[in-house]
Amino acid sequence: MTTDRRGYRVGTMQCHVGTLKRAAWLLLFSLSLLRTIADAAYAQSPFSDNPSLALRDSDTIVSRGILRVAITKFDLPGFRWRNREGELEGPEIVLARSIGQLLKVGVDYVDDHPTFEAVVDSIASGRTDIGISKLSQTPRRILRVRFSDPYLTVRQALLFDRVHVGNEAVGRTTEDALRRFGGSLAVISQSSYVDFGLRNFPNAQLVEMQTWDDSIDALANGRVDAVYRDEFEIRRVLLTRPALIVRFGSAVLTDQHSLLSIAICSSCTRLQQFVNYVIAESQGLFALPSLLTASRR
Hints:
It is a single chain. The longest helix is centred in the first third of the chain and has 35 residues, at 10-44. The chain has helices spanning 10-44, 46-49, 58-64, 91-103, 116-124, 139-142, 162-168, 174-179, 192-200, 212-220, 231-240, 244-247, 269-280, 288-294, and strands spanning 66-72, 81-82, 88-89, 106-113, 130-136, 146-147, 152-161, 184-188, 205-209, 226-230, 248-264. The strands form 2 sheets. Strands 1, 4, 5, 6, 7, 8, 9, 10 and 11 form a 9-stranded mixed beta sheet that branches. The chain has a two-stranded antiparallel sheet with strand order 2-3. It is elongated. It has 2 domains: 55-153 and 260-294, Periplasmic binding protein-like II (D-Maltodextrin-Binding Protein, domain 2, 3-Layer(aba) Sandwich); 154-258, Periplasmic binding protein-like II (D-Maltodextrin-Binding Protein, domain 2), CATH 3.40.190.10. The protein has 14 helices and 11 strands.
């Protein structure tokens, strides 16, 4: 070991430099190996074949300049519809546009989804970024996509054949007969009410219908004993078809709610926070009386 004129131990310094060089080369080799492993894993993942599944968030959407919004191809009276000119209207559209405006991007409505579940599928597959179509949160859906805070919480409800429920209620209350309902129960196919029906009415025979109108027609024609959806839809049916009140009763399930929310891509954590902010700033947009009025247009 030698000492230079400033008193530094040169031999020790050279030793340390050599050690640092070896450590640096080892670090570079480790990083290169990790990159190779990551590339191999990506090549075998579904993301390599479908770039739309790659991790994305609000910054991806802003860079693209377009927010892709999934909606059902059929109208949702009171919530969303097409006017005579074919333009989309309704509070759900107002909400989607507000999200796009605050993100400073355009909004592209992908409106070819035949069912509610197809809207969720579209987001889970990466085809669209968010979905707004009167979607209820369910445990199964939550495992596939993110959900915003609810923009409306509605109670679940039944419209039922009075005679059938009266026969079932012999020796017990009507409320108990409804909670233990064992007749045929119509629900919209590929909707959250299939899940709700299996969970809340295990004794019923679920009958999946293509549309809500099909469900009501089946009830009116005696092909099912009850229909199951939310209180808004039950009230809307009785407003538009008041003759049904004579034969059919309605009941609200006070302990069962549908959380109507915006479905969001699973990796979009910042977008979820952003959407929640917009919803909080849009209070009053989804009030049941105004929704019922709008549904009669």
